[in-house]
Amino acid sequence: MSNGTTKGGLHTFSIVLQSKDGLKRITIPSEGDEEVIIEGNLGELRELDLVENAMLEIKGIKGILRIEVSEGELIALRARARASL
Question: Most buried of 13, 17, 81, 83 (most Cβ within 10 A)?
Fold first, then answer.
């Protein structure tokens, strides 16, 4: 997740929790195309960073959420959200 681009439009992500106590729910259905749900608690947010213009990193006291996305994509998404208001 460090080259600033995504492969085939896919945006990978990772979630690191300090303990399983931060995990609220994981739902993985037995059927193929149903949605998967991952819920948890990062705790109080401590830091937000765009690492190497390739990964948004949100750090809380209980964990870290990382999403592969570039600064350009974030700007474009924000502009679209504002335009739809």
Answer: 17
